[in-house]
Amino acid sequence: MGNLPAALTTFVGRHRELVEVRRRLGATRLLTLTGAGGVGKTRLALEVAAASATDFADGVWLVDLAPLRDPSVVANSVAAALGVPDLGTRPVAEQLAAFLAHRGPLIVLDNCEHLVDACAELAHALLSASPELHVLTTSRRALGIYGEHVFAVPPLEVDDSVELLRDRTTALRPEFRITDGNRAQLLRLCDGLDGLPLAIELAASRLRTLTVDEAVNRMEDRFGLLARGSRVARPHQRTLRALIDWSHELCTPSERLLWNRLSVFAGDFGLDAAEDVCAGDGIGRDEVLDLLDQLVVQSIVVPTEREGLPRYRLLETIRQYGRDQLTESGQEQRLLQRYRDFYLALAERGADGWYGSGQQESLTRLRSEHANLRAALAQGGDPQATLALAAALRFHWCEGGFLGEARRWLDHALDAAPEPSLARARALWVAAWVAVLHRDYATANSRLDEAAELGGQLDDPVVCAQVRSLRGTLALFGGRMGEAVALLEGAATALLEAGEEVGAVYALIQMSTAQSHLGDPRSTQTCRQAFVLAEAHDEPLVRAQAQWSLGYDAWRRGKLEEAGVLMRASLANDRGFNSYIRVALKLEQLAWVSACGGDHMRAGRLLGAARAMWRDIDAPLSTFGPQMSEQHDQCEGEIVRVLGPAAYERLLAEGSGHRGPDEAIAYALHSEPEPPVVTPAPCPLTPREREVAALVAEGMSNRQIASSLGRSPSTVHGHVENILAKLSFGSRARIASWWTASQVPVH
After folding, report:
1. Is residue 589 classed as helix, strand or coil in its secondary structure?
2. Who's near 664: CB < 8 A, 6+ residues apart?
3. Which of 257, 539, 591, 651 to pair with 41, CA 20 to 30 A apart?
């Protein structure tokens, strides 16, 4: 487990340091690697972390703090790196401490020097809460807290410096060799670089086109000029700055221009971002890739990977140098505007295209851009654009698990842009949604009141319908079922009329839950309507919710087998989304189904898995209505009555050993009792009937199926009647549920 990036180059030298740092890490819980910029603190920390991976059952996790400027989001960055959602009402640091209290990972906090106080405070809190946690930090200065051990990373020894220079140069010039003729000059070059790995790698990139003698001569001239300008600087600082100056000057004008412009990215970035933000005014869009490749070759840009996506980044020293150059050029504000516009467009595409099969990819991309999204939101200059960006990120905030940050950014953006506008109306209902999920119902109602008024003024039916839907959700969570049904029914109708079909599905799902609690027989039909709409959009999250809704309704009607099949299918569709709340709710309800079916041991384990999820997100089940707590208590009471309190506690402990939603899903889906070995009954349907059943499950009418298959509607009607008779079903919705659960292949 972990998120360490794959090394793209060999690790040269440092054998003694590697052994010593690993030894110290085993003897202390907080170890800080200090040293000058460019000395290789990060690379050594990553090598130590990779070599120590098997020592930490809960994983090794890297948190890059270089892009951060706000100390208040250090805890958020650590939580995001570990996949801990910010869903609770307590501060993120407290949620993180609770999450780590029963875990023992290694966390690498990289580049702490500009956030030393915040890092020190967080490290102390987390180490105090988790006796098994280890923290490895890199910083130009120590954190200065009790229990910290410090290891000063030295420059490379001469032999290692020469070997690093040879390794990196041969990657660019395979024919390069160290010979008796160039050894002395290579030693002189490495000595002048003070054994700094960053400086050596930059120099190696120049040996692609220069001889060793030319490189030494050029550097000596540059060092002399720099020394006269800054005699008080330390030698290694003069060398590093001089080398970056030199590297900048040896780039072509277009390469320098791209280097400077890339410095606006707060974190790593993708090729499309570089093309959109940096092209123009001297760089053609079709030139960006080639120029970027040249900067990679020259060790200015480092290729990397995040969330499985190819990315690029600038080392912080290189980035800051480019930003200084960009500021001096007078182009900074123009580039920052392009930067914000790109991320606003990216967020809006993600929101507009959310309903479909690409949801995981959208969430993955936005997670990979989190540092850049923060920087774009913090940029200022255009309050309406900031408001639009904060609202467009609604699925990133709510489905990605960043509720705490969402509230801060939305509150800030709404305060900065009080003028009535469509952007404000949308941001208000998004802020209300976030407040509902954060269990702050007073704020949610206040935001909804303003959104309703503004939506009416602007005559925006979508805003008005979303407000009504959220009011219905609040009524459901408050136990006011009749009010919830009326509000959600109106919201679903309005959303369908506005073309927001998937938004209508969510309203229908909540509506069916309220109807079910009221004993309203229409709940089943409401569920089926939601399921058919979800299937029509090939929308995995909504499909999962609709399956859950059908399963919950089946359980309330006493159809335990059908409920179990649908709930397990719903859990399977939740894989990969890291959704603690949805998975916890479904584990709870699958436990209730198991208990009703007499499998009390499995029910106890599932409640244990759900309890671990609620604990990790600091959220009680009662958030979702008093009826949920009542049903949990009934299930728990039944298990204790049958098995006894001691056995129940053992089952809870057995079920709580997972690490996050995906492991919990796998546990739930693979903890079924072993079925008896029997010969499966053949499917009673003919191949044509199976084909028709598949199309019914897609929500098609008889006329649509007839058109698709090239048959008459009366023929299709006959096939549907035969299917209903053979399967003993009373409706088309039962065919859809059966087909989805069984996934019978069409031959």
Report:
1. helix
2. 583, 587, 609, 612, 613, 658
3. 257
